[in-house]
Write a structure and sequence with these properties.
Layout: H1 12-24, H2 29-47, E1 53-58, H3 62-76, E2 81-85, H4 94-102, E3 107-109, E4 119-124, H5 136-148, E5 152-155, E6 177-181, H6 186-189, H7 193-197, E7 199-203, H8 209-215, E8 219-221, E9 245-249, H9 257-268, E10 273-278, H10 283-287, E11 294-297, H11 301-310, E12 315-318, H12 326-334, E13 340-343, H13 345-348, H14 354-358, E14 367-370, H15 373-379, H16 381-384, H17 391-402, E15 405-408, E16 414-416, E17 422-424, H18 437-450, H19 455-473, H20 479-484
Parallel strand pairs: 1-2, 1-4, 2-3, 4-5, 5-6, 6-7, 8-17, 9-10, 9-12, 10-11, 12-13, 13-14, 14-15
Antiparallel strand pairs: 15-16, 16-17
Length: 492
């Protein structure tokens, strides 16, 4: 997977491995700590120049060492600084012990901390190196800081936040700013971690990029550099059939709007042709609302198969407004492993028998599942119930077990492939959480599949373009206005 710095995410374990590899290559580990601490100090002075006192909270490990370096740098810059240590600082070892010895700021136990209204807190207690809930004493500090509304600069990660899962282990600091080093971690992007980190700065402290790339796994931040080369490039000979024919299945007469949204989105996202496959009872209402999108009466699985035998259909969207039950299962199975975006009711229809869905898609990866949390829990209950796993890990396990691309939706949508690749999306604005936006997303991914884009790249691109369209539409948008702001293939 592409290792552009803007996309790199390293788990805490991977970052530890990178630190170890840097030391083995001859890079002085204390030199890295000095650069990290100085970066924190520089960020604090740049972003909080009004601060009358920087309160540096130092923990019992290397994160605390970064804090001692930052405190000394702030002192040398002329700032007022106070250091408060968690635990017995005399038990520090290695680089952290050296950093404390070089810090000339008067140091006090954390229990003696009295916060003032002019303080800015630098949280250098645990960072990413925490695997259990923080102490009661530190939780009280967190509560007092939150009640006073004080700025908090987190070093690496807000203490108490799991860097792998983005979940507080019990309670975590609410940071206004986070300074991390070399690459972000999954916990910076996954919710609620993203909201606990505030603004995030990534500083290069001198670990060679080859070491960072070697340590990184297959998890990335979603970005065009990862998939833009897989998108079709229109040329002078392009025509509607080369851009694919997308079919979207409609629900009954009172549930047609979702399918039309998906169809309109598919057309806007670049499908050459789009047809809504409608039951007889909904033909009139669909016909009265469709213009460029075509319409075909389709009642049964047999009719679906007959259509497949006669028409050049490239990809399908099933689920939005379709209804839960045997008909949805029948239609999905009639598609026989063809490129399919299964959404909403289509997913829920297989909750009692997911294997019936997965078996026809056991070959090439052509199935894209787009569940929100509730739908994910229905289709993958055992995975969903495992609290030891983060969202990205759950999505990857689901992708492997289903041989499908999983679009695990939310403010932190995760897209995972059966081969172990995964991306976390981060460009979706809050107002994208509105009725019908998921139907739009299904149509956009369907259009990319119709254009012969591989399933993982189609899903990752669709999710990203969905977020970009919402940003252009602006706050207060509806699903209908969202469709009007879709711009396909903007990097070609």
């Amino acid at each position: 997977m592409n290792s552009e710095p803007k996309t790199l995410l390293l788990t805490p374990a991977e970052m530890t491995a990178a630190d170890r590899a840097a030391a083995q290559s001859g890079i002085a580990s204390y030199g890295l700590m000095e650069k990290a601490g100085q970066a924190v100090a520089a960020s604090a002075l740049r972003h909080y120049p009004q601060t009358l006192r920087f309160v540096v909270l130092c923990g019992p490990g290397n994160n605390g060492g970064d804090g001692y370096v930052a405190a000394q740098a702030l002192l040398e810059a002329g700032a007022s600084v106070a250091v408060f240590a968690l635990g017995d600082p005399e038990r520090l070892t290695g680089d952290a012990r050296r950093a404390r010895a070089r810090c000339l700021v008067e140091q006090h136990p954390l229990s003696q901390l009295e916060l003032k209204s002019c303080d800015t807190i630098i949280d250098a207690v645990f960072g990413a190196g925490l695997s259990k809930p923080v102490s009661v004493g530190l939780q009280h500090v967190m509560e007092r800081a939150a009640m006073a509304g004080l700025p908090v600069i987190a070093v690496d990660l807000p203490s108490g936040l799991c860097g792998q899962r983005g979940i507080p282990l019990d309670r975590a600091f609410q940071a206004t700013h986070t300074v991390t080093f070399m690459a972000r971690k999954p916990g910076h992007l996954l919710m609620p971690g993203r909201s606990l980190c505030g603004d995030i700065e990534v500083f290069d402290i001198g670990i060679p990029s080859r070491i960072i790339r070697a340590a990184a796994g297959n998890l990335r931040a979603n970005h065009p550099v990862l998939w833009q080369d897989h998108l079709p490039s229109p040329d002078a000979q392009s025509h509607k059939y080369r851009r694919g024919h997308l079919a979207v299945f409609s629900g009954g007469a009172s549930h047609t709007g979702a399918a039309r949204l998906s169809a309109a989105a598919g057309l806007a996202a670049g499908a050459g042709l789009v047809t809504v496959a409608s039951p007889k009872e909904a033909m009139a209402v669909n016909a009265g609302q469709l213009t460029a999108v075509m319409l075909r009466e389709t009642e049964t699985g047999t009719q679906v198969r007959e259509w497949l035998a006669r028409a050049k259909l490239s990809a399908f969207v099933l689920g939005p407004g379709f209804g839960v039950g045997e008909k949805a299962r029948e239609f999905a199975l009639a598609l026989e492993g063809r490129p399919l975006v299964l959404d909403a009711d289509g997913i829920t229809s297989f909750r009692e028998s997911p294997a019936r869905l997965f078996e026809p898609y056991s070959g090439d990866v052509r199935l894209v599942l787009t569940p929100h949390h509730g739908e994910f829990s229905r289709l993958f209950p055992e995975i969903a119930e495992n609290d030891q796993l983060g969202k990205a890990e759950k999505a990857l396990l689901a992708a492997e077990s289903s041989n499908a691309v999983i679009v695990y939706k939310g403010a932190d949508t995760v897209i995972a492939a059966p081969d172990g690749r995964a991306v976390i999306n981060e460009n979706a604005p809050p107002w994208l959480a509105t009725a019908g936006s998921g139907d739009v997303l299904a149509g956009m991914i369907g259009a990319l599949l119709a254009n012969r884009t591989p399933a993982f790249e189609a899903a990752a691109c669709g999710v990203y373009l969905h977020g970009e369209a919402a940003l252009r539409a602006g706050e207060g948008m509806t699903a209908e206005t969202l469709v009007r702001h879709i711009t396909p293939h903007v990097w070609h």
